[in-house]
Amino acid sequence: MLHLFQVTLLFACLDCFDRVLSDSAIECYGCATSLPATTDFEAKTAMKLLIKNNYNLPEVHKVCSEPGDQEFPTIPHLECPIGDQCVKITVNQQDQRFVIRGCRATMFKPNITPQDYPCDDRSSPSICYCDQALCNRSLLMLAADLAANTAAPLLYYQNTVQLMLY
Length: 166
Known about the structure:
Keywords: Glycoprotein, Signal. It comes from Plectus sambesii. InterPro entries: QVR-like. It is a single chain. This protein is an alpha+beta fold and 166 residues long. It is 40% helix and 17% strand. It has one domain (23-152). It is built from 4 helices and 6 strands. A 4-stranded antiparallel beta sheet has the order 2-5-4-6. A hairpin with a 2-residue loop joins strand 4 and strand 5. Helix 1 packs antiparallel against helix 4 (139-165). The protein starts with a helix and ends with a helix.
């Protein structure tokens, strides 16, 4: 009977821990890439108008689209509101890539409802949301974070239950 109580208590603690995490602010990378110098004047003008009307653009950073770059960790971190998510928007056009990273709650202008695009680097545009600290680095990092954050609690739970039962 005691074992069942301990397992129930463990689940209650894990549930409380999960609520604390979801009710706290997270940090996200906040940056945008600049338009390539080779972009013609009309395309730059159209893109700037589109961005100005739809997004609150974070600071431009030269390695925003290159998460593997040695300088990537120097990109500014934004503290997002409680319960918010990190976002990464990617647009690929031929050999050019435009990326915006930031907080979901502040990324879009107040009158804009983000469209539902897939979270897939192979599609364009791609919009990805995540809720771990600095998780908007890249899709590969998101997959690694998901695996790490899922495996650790499961291993802890498995080991705790085994200890309680023996």
